[in-house]
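Researcher: We plan to redesign the surface later, but first we want a full-length starting point. Tokens attached.
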């Protein structure tokens, strides 16, 4: 069985997602309207949604299930 390649993340997930979304929007701005542009914008929206979900999950107000 192969060993997993493991590495330590140097930045927080929120920062990585924000950077990814910003780059995807910049890429979409350079593209002509069409499937490729829509795909880049979709990836940016998904990264934003994931970032918001991560904030919600890690919020101090969230109570564990009983």
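Model: Full-length starting sequence:
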């Amino acid at each position: 069985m192969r060993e997993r390649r493991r590495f330590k993340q140097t930045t927080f997930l929120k920062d990585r997602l924000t950077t990814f979304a910003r780059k995807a929007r910049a890429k979409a701005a350079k593209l002509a309207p069409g499937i490729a542009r829509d795909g880049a914008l979709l990836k940016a929206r998904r990264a934003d949604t994931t970032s918001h979900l991560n904030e919600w999950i890690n919020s101090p107000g969230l109570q564990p299930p009983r």
